[in-house]
Amino acid sequence: MQARNIAIRLFIYEEYENKRFEFLSYGNGGQYSQEQKEYAFELIAEYGIRATARILKVQRRTLQRWSRENHIRVKRCPDWVYGWAERRRKRKEFWARRGYG
How far apart are the C-alpha atoms of 94 and 101, rounded to whole Å? Predict the structure, then answer.
């Protein structure tokens, strides 16, 4: 079981490294190019801003600045978080009424 988890993590790490390599391949060695920014925007739409920052190893604030400059609205968190938080709140209330918590 643990070997399978390690294999999965290595696969994910390799995929993220490939994405980072592709991001770097669009560059010119100096400042970030427009192609790099567009690639980052694609990843932001798919993974979110924090995950994209980890994948590309670019500061989150830099990605947020690029998004603002290009009039791309980035949500604070993915849509599923709101539903998850509501279910969690209801569970906590349920157990608090029964004396746990």
Answer: 10
Q: What average pLDDT does this structure show over 31-46?
A: 93
d(CA 68, CA 66): 5
Write the CA distances from 52 to 43, 55, 89, integer angstroms: 6, 5, 28
Distance, CA of 93 to CA of 101 (rounded, Å): 9
Q: Mapping DSSP to helix (H, G, I), strand (E, B) and coil, where does residue 75 land?
A: coil
Return the residue matching tokens 């603002």.
68
Q: What digits encode the pLDDT tens for the residues 55-92?
A: 999 999 999 999 999 998 887 677 788 899 999 999 99
Structure tokens at 95: 């157990």
Domain ranges of the chain: 2-76
